[in-house]
Amino acid sequence: MIRLDRFMCGAGAGTRSQVKALIKAGRVSVDGEQVFSADLKIEENRTRVLLDGRPLFLPGNVYYMLNKPAGVITAARDARERTVMDLMKDAPGKDLFPVGRLDKDTEGLLLITNDGALAHRLLSPARHVEKRYLVHTAAPVSEEMCRALEEGVEIGDGKPTLPARTERIADMPCALYLGITEGRFHQVKRMLDAVGNAVTALRRVSMGPLLLDDKLPQGGWRELTEEERRTLGV
Length: 234
Hints:
- The chain is of the alpha+beta class.
- The chain folds into three domains: about 1-55, Structural Genomics Hypothetical 15.5 Kd Protein In mrcA-pckA Intergenic Region, Chain A (Roll), CATH 3.10.290.10; about 65-125 and about 215-230, Alpha-Beta Plaits, CATH 3.30.70; about 130-205, Alpha-Beta Plaits (2-Layer Sandwich).
- It is built from seven helices and 15 strands.
- The protein has helices at about 5-10, 15-25, 85, 115-125, 145-150, 185-195, 225-230; strands at about 1-5, 30, 35, 40, 50, 55, 65-70, 95-100, 105-115, 130-135, 165-170, 170-180, 200-205, 210, 220-225.
- Strands 7, 8, 9, 10, 11, 12, 13, 14 and 15 form a nine-stranded mixed beta sheet that branches. Strands 3-2-5-6 form a four-stranded antiparallel beta sheet, with no helix packed on it.
- The longest helix is centred in the first third of the chain and has 9 residues, at about 15-25.
- The protein is elongated.
- It starts with a strand and ends with a helix.
- The relative contact order is 0.15.
- The model has no long low-confidence stretch (mean pLDDT about 95).
């Protein structure tokens, strides 16, 4: 247990006197309740503390979900292009980075963290963590196309893709859900090209057990819930 004012100081919210003034002004909430007592005892690793609606964290690992919009690149920084980290500039936490990469024109789920060990677990080829996409296509998706994708297709780099998981969508003939466990360059687009179709829009909807929050607007982000963190083992 730790005093609220000490926690806030450790999270970089200000000096002890500044933090006490923030609490007194009613700008702090603990687990959804507005608080006014600086000496309130909290559990530093379990209690949710917000300052003006923004979460505070002690130094350590943090975890965010970003709904990436098209038009930004997946990089920590770039001299010419707008990056996903530009969307995260107000997120608390040090040394944040995106886990994996989405193409500039691809939308959807992106995990942002400073936990290198988690990133390694999710991206390691040996672990075969599935990334699932909603794929819109130029032509209707046939059963034959799905069978080929599920068996693995040649995409021009010398070896077939690993078996994918497909799901046709009853009321959307020009779309499918596609789950892959690799991360090869432009892989989904090249896979659809290999079966005689083409991708017109692409959205990642899950990564391992982490599902995109369909209430999160494009370009929006939020910290992971405790349940989401548990599913990731953090």
